[in-house]
Structure formats: structure tokens, C-alpha cells
Amino acid sequence: MRDDATEILGAPPPGALLFTCEHASNRVPSPWRLRPADRALLATHWGYDIGARPLTIELARLAGGTAALSRFSRLLIDPNRDPTDPSAVLQECDDGAPTFNRACHPSRDNRAAVHAERVKRFHAPFHDRLDRTITFRKPRFLCSVHSFTPVFRDDTRAMEAGVLFDQHDDVAEGLLRALRAQGIKAEANEPYSGKAGLIYSANRHGTNHGLPYLEIEVRQDLLASDRMARDVARRVWSALRAVGI
Length: 245
Hints:
Aminopeptidase; two-stranded antiparallel sheet; about 35% helix; alpha/beta; seven-stranded mixed beta sheet
């Protein structure tokens, strides 16, 4: 099941797991025309979470659950941010400035209209589809899946995975121990913190539906191929099972 904003894979019975991937794609559809610099930027972690899509799909397959995947680049608008957050649409980042976001600059008179159109076309439909999926399929747990770079702004990240949470601390701590038992160097609320409000999508849907949730981050060099992503998925799924998720 696929539309402009979202792809849903799997049709499990009630009580299965739901895996969401908010940064699954670097797609920028028409009417935008991309320049070479835009394409180069979209191929980096600024455009999408490298390796997160195959990881999410394999986790859903192993769990007999559902995968809900975004079909647009986070540079158009980030579905893991509140749409009113200034960082939801980036005018520039460390590796460049996407030309298709110039109209969103605060100095532009039509900025509000452009932003509203992106919310209407991408952000709202993605979250509406998640709401409908949760209501219809009644999963028992929501796990948001992301990836992070080995080095960010000269900071080398030794951890291989992070468990991000703002509630359900006992579940998160149990998963950390289970991941470490699988030989994965995992840390709590790293490289970003759920306690700092950086798991918008999982929090939104978990809270609205009374569903336990957390976010898993995996270092991108461990997901450099589909085979590697499948291997990581098997270990993550073993950890999820070990804690009864």
C-alpha cells in the first residue's frame, strides 16, 4: 500500500509490532527540479537515513509486523519534527543548501504558504496514515527506526546503536542490555535524546494511541549493504524478543 507520502508493508493480525521509518527515502518528486548539488546532498545523511529502510523492512518481516516508511526526503519536511519546529525544513546544513528550500527562507514573503503546502502534501498524510494503521491494526508496540553517521562534526561515535526514549524507561533499559548481549555497543538516548524531545513521531503516535514506544538508532556503516542490514535486523529482533517486546 503506497501513496505520495507513505508506504505500508505487511498485513499482520492485531497485536503485532509496528516499525516506522520516518527518514526512509531521499525522494524529491515533481514539481521540484534538482540541481547536481541537490542530488549530491540528497545522497548523504541529510537527505535520508542511510540503511534504515532495509533494516526496517527486515525487522517487520522477522517480527511478522508492519513497516511504515516515508516516501519523501527529510529535506522537504522532516516527519520526525513537529511541523512548527524551525528545523522541520532546513534552508542549509553542514554540506550545503538545498535549492528547493529557498522559498522556505524566513525572508521570503511566500514562506508560510510553501511550508503549509509541504505539511499538506507530505507531513500530515504520513502521520494520518500512521494513525489509521494503528487504529486498524492495533499493534502492541511501536518502534521507530533510524540511522546515524559514524562521524558528525568531528565527533567520532564509538557506539553502534542507541535506544531513544522519553517514557517506558524499564523497557528501554532492558533492550539496551539485550542489544549488548547480541554484541552491539548500545547506549541510552544517544546520539540524540528522547528526553530532549527528539523522538517526535514515536511520541506523537504512542501517546495518542496509548501505545508503548521507543526509537532505535543504528550506525550507518553497519548498514552499508542490504546483507549487513539484514544481519543487524536479526540481532535487533533477537534483542526485542529477549525483553518481550
